[in-house]
Amino acid sequence: MTTKNKSTFADYLRDPDDFTLTFELVPSRGGRSKEHARTIALAKEIALDGRIRAVSITENAGGHSALSPEVLGIEIKAMGLEVIIHFSCKDKNRNQMESLLFGWDREEMRNLLVITGDYPQAGYKGFPKPVFDLGSVHALDLISRLNKGLFSERNQKPKNCHIKPTSFFNGVAVSPFKRLRSELIPQYYKLHRKAAAGADYVITQVGFDARKFQEILLYMKQNNLNLPLIGNVFIPNLAVTEIMYKGGIPGCIITEKLYEQIIGESKSPDKGRKARLVRAAKLLCVLRGLGYNGAHIGGPGLTFADIDFVLNEAEAYYPDWKSLVSEMSYWYEAGCYYFQKDHQTGLNSDQLAVEHKEKAPCSIAYTLAKLFHDLMFEKKGLLYMPMKSTCETLGMGRMAPAWVRFEHLLKFLAFECRNCGDCALHDLGYLCPQSGCAKYLLNGPCGGSRDGWCEVFPGVKRCFYVRLYERLLGCGREQTMKDGFVPPRNWSLNATSSWLNYYQGRDHAASEQG
Q1: Comparing C-alpha atoms, which of 250, 282, 253, 287 is closest to residue 121?
Q2: What span, in angstroms and rounded, lies between the C-alpha atoms of 124 and 54?
Q3: What backbone torsions phi and psi does residue 232 show, to the nearest 5 degrees?
Q4: What average pLDDT does the segment 325-350 reach?
Q5: Residue 232, beta-bridge partner list
Q6: Residue 5: what pLDDT?
Q7: Residue 75: C-alpha distances to residues 34, 38, 101 (Å)
Q8: What does each C-alpha distance from 56 to 13, 299, 379, 386 come to in angstroms?
Q9: Residue 451's closest CA among 297, 351, 315, 334?
Q10: Cα separation, 415 vs 412, whole angstroms
Q11: pLDDT tens figures, 29-45
Q12: Exposure string (b/e) for 56-94, b if CB count within 10 Å is 16 or more?
């Protein structure tokens, strides 16, 4: 049982006078390894020290299978240390998610970091099937419903529930570390959807640039996204530095300038270890000076002595944190910023950066698709009733299989349709997320893209949401990416006529209206 007079992670994070520190633990492959024992020993030292308020536990980090985070979490929670469980969407469907949440609520592990998750990597006899039944926005909505006691179908009132509401505290991630504007803006727009779906706090992705860290802080302030913000302070070893520099860890950025500096530092007797720890200490106090609510520390192979060194150094540097801003300047020379630079402070002004590149005109493909949609699928459209009658005549009975194949052929040629039966083309600029996004996301991008390329197909396939942003920008509709909610796919409609499902009120649009 929890002690009422003891503050929780949520209490600390919401306290404006507390700079809340968390630390990331990565479970090992297997629950009886030496690495697991080392992790438990480190957690004990952290718990006894008291400066770190909570540890977060990753779930199959990098897409590789590992010990379930709640197993490690139960052990650590027994030490009196708060635990944050990473709740990823990649490996489980919505029913399994709900089942896990009930279990975690019973174990009183209620601090979550809700993420889409890295694409699954090779496992037993090859690569597993990526699930991504829900995206992070869907998962947040599900958890928010559970927190209200809404455990079944829509419209169920809390008073009708026989199970008590849960009380999860939901964290989400955002990445200001995107080189292209078409990649950056969708990240920020998705944050609006996460906030609306029930996010309680925000943590940044990995990066090392003070202006970029301040950028998201300013964006949230200007857009009234009043959520606590935690900055990511990652301490890479040389092997991870190499991997991040080459783009091998989705969403984590080490630029050429920083890479060359770390390689230069590695020629010292300690192979640059102290220099990396000092850099982390400096970033820690810059985040504190900028007004962050806390910092999330992580990195491979760190000992408690390393953590203690970083925290002590940060305290020593903090009174003069403004002088460190220029040292924390590791961004691409031609990389975009959302705000103009304040040359006096070296940070950002509150003025938006000027976008010099001319936007492309509204595409013919989008214009034609919208025209046909408005004619056939809007109730005031001239072809709405004839199309509805045709679908109901040919899409039922003996003609149904042929009608489904006919519809699929037309939509495959026009949109690379996957015949899901629950079409979201109208919601997403007439681009198909089932074929266009490796994770089938419906409410904004994951954080794994790099230079506009999909995390799963780098250099081959552009990020679906970069394409969507560019398409909507040309039509002056890019702001629609931060509003609304596209419900998850209804799998009972797979390989059926999405047109007929639309007219008969069986698809996600009708479900959401209900």
Answers
A1: 250
A2: 33
A3: -90, 120
A4: 95
A5: 296
A6: 45
A7: 16, 13, 18
A8: 14, 12, 49, 56
A9: 334
A10: 5
A11: 888 889 999 999 999 99
A12: bbbbbbbbebbbbbbebbebbbeeebbbbbbbbbbbbeb
